[in-house]
């Protein structure tokens, strides 16, 4: 059984490395295109700011994940050195949290910018959204930093308990004590995931309702307008993200549940999906953004000609 787990671990490590490599290229493409546009125009709109930060967070998240997966397979004892595993878990959590919250900001931005409601609060947000976006991104990074500090404390506690309590008669007592100590930390981590997931759900629901009301108004007109096209394009992007985000949210919760069982096959499968998510969703964002899609098709056509 141990050999099977080891072979599964080696296979999962190879898959994770390939996923991370593909995801890094995809997000590096987004970063390069937006940085070139930034240099040419000397400015970025709010949508491009969110996409740039999202691409950077995903790129570094995949770099750290692939490095951790490689070291855990090639030189696993290196990860048991005191500060290494704590720092690795903390950095991965920081970039993962950043990805989740910045993605939620992107969904909220689409909703506020495209949806049409006559509510005074919504109209105020629509007018001020470009000024609010930098503060939302700053808040996302603060939440991510708080989550990484919590994970560092959790990992430090688990590491110290594993080192200090090796007697079997104290194992049950130590487990109960660890659970009591770690429950607030796990609750805060789960709350962070749930809050970002809730923001995505509300954005999708509001945009869908806005599309439905706008479609009713346009029933007498056989011509499509730009607002309808924008609704549909944003809705496709958010719904595809909502499906992936839902699976991602379940996997993150399962990661918390299986945090003490690193050799479980379920943990390996969850890790494979979590590393595939940043690349796949970034690819969806590329094809839902005209500028990024045009740049990608231009590169692919040049490669095909050569």
UniProtKB/TrEMBL annotation:
<feature type="transmembrane region" description="Helical">
    <location>
        <begin position="234"/>
        <end position="259"/>
    </location>
</feature>
<keyword id="KW-0919">Taste</keyword>
<keyword id="KW-1133">Transmembrane helix</keyword>
<dbReference type="GO" id="GO:0004930">
    <property type="term" value="F:G protein-coupled receptor activity"/>
</dbReference>
<comment type="similarity">
    <text>Belongs to the G-protein coupled receptor T2R family.</text>
</comment>
<keyword id="KW-0807">Transducer</keyword>
<dbReference type="InterPro" id="IPR007960">
    <property type="entry name" value="TAS2R"/>
</dbReference>
<feature type="transmembrane region" description="Helical">
    <location>
        <begin position="20"/>
        <end position="39"/>
    </location>
</feature>
<feature type="transmembrane region" description="Helical">
    <location>
        <begin position="51"/>
        <end position="71"/>
    </location>
</feature>
<dbReference type="GO" id="GO:0033038">
    <property type="term" value="F:bitter taste receptor activity"/>
</dbReference>
<keyword id="KW-0675">Receptor</keyword>
<dbReference type="Pfam" id="PF05296">
    <property type="entry name" value="TAS2R"/>
</dbReference>
<keyword id="KW-0716">Sensory transduction</keyword>
<protein>
    <recommendedName>
        <fullName>Taste receptor type 2</fullName>
    </recommendedName>
</protein>
<feature type="transmembrane region" description="Helical">
    <location>
        <begin position="186"/>
        <end position="213"/>
    </location>
</feature>
<keyword id="KW-0297">G-protein coupled receptor</keyword>
<keyword id="KW-0472">Membrane</keyword>
<keyword id="KW-0812">Transmembrane</keyword>
<feature type="transmembrane region" description="Helical">
    <location>
        <begin position="132"/>
        <end position="152"/>
    </location>
</feature>
<feature type="transmembrane region" description="Helical">
    <location>
        <begin position="91"/>
        <end position="112"/>
    </location>
</feature>
<dbReference type="GO" id="GO:0016020">
    <property type="term" value="C:membrane"/>
</dbReference>
<feature type="transmembrane region" description="Helical">
    <location>
        <begin position="265"/>
        <end position="288"/>
    </location>
</feature>
